[in-house]
Each structure stands twice: as C-alpha cells, then as structure tokens.
Amino acid sequence: MAAAIGELQHGYLDPHRVEASRQVMGLDRQLILDRTYFVVLRDGVLAGCGGWSWRATLFGGDHSEGRDPALLDPACDPARIRAMYTAPAHVRQGVGRYVLGLGETAAREAGFRSAELAATLSGEPLYRACGYKVIERFTAGDCVPLLRMGKPLP
Prior knowledge:
This protein is 28% helix and 30% strand. It has five helices and six strands. The chain has a six-stranded mixed beta sheet with strand order 1-2-3-4-6-5. The longest helix is centred in the middle third of the chain and has 15 residues, at 95-109. The termini are far apart. The mean pLDDT is 96.
C-alpha cells in the first residue's frame, strides 16, 4: 500500500498531495474482519490487494476520518469497492482488474445490484475501462482529489 500510494500517483499529484494521500488512504481492518478483502500473490510475492464492503464507508484506512460502519441495504444501496492497491512492479498486468472482479462478484453474490468506489486520479483509467462512471469529484483531507465512481452489477 505504501509503495502504491508513494509511487503510482506521481505524474498525477505533486509531492505534497502524494504525502497527504497517506492520511486519507490505507488499510481498513474492518474489511479483513468482514472477510471481504483479497490479496493476490504472484510467485509468492504480494502483487495486489483490495476488496468490497457492505458498510457505508466509501474510502479510507483505519486512521482516516469520516468512517461509517453502518450496514448497507443491498436492495437499495451500492456495495463499496475498497482499498484497491497494486504493487508498482505489477501494474498493467491485470492484477487490479482481477481484484476488482473478485470484489464485484462477491458483492453481486451478496445481493448488491451496483457498486461505488472512491478513485484516485491514477486509478481512474482502470475503473473507467471496467465500466465505472464518475458520479462526483471531491477532495479528501486538505488537498487529495478523488472521484466517486459507480456502476451497475448485472
């Protein structure tokens, strides 16, 4: 996660915003407790991770402000795709798309009909390619640009 935050956002954010990203991103251990988090290994090396949630929190790690553990209703609320990270050595090799697919499939099997996520600028191309559309642009913390994106889960 630290490497993905630190390396993959260069070219999208200035160094100050990259560092500020560490305050609004990271691991949410609730995903692990809920058993909705996936880790991908390639030849025994961590290549990526991510998951989904039936809780209201859209983004952020254990240390982030604004977390909401309220349960979502699959009949009317979108599932949350959460904490997606690809190790820099494994970008553009299908890892992110694979983890995203795992989360979408699990959310669909849990009865959700749509999904939402908070995308970084560096993650936006992947999510667009996978059918997500921008719902709104917003700023997290003092200066970190994010995009709330969503898509149906047919």
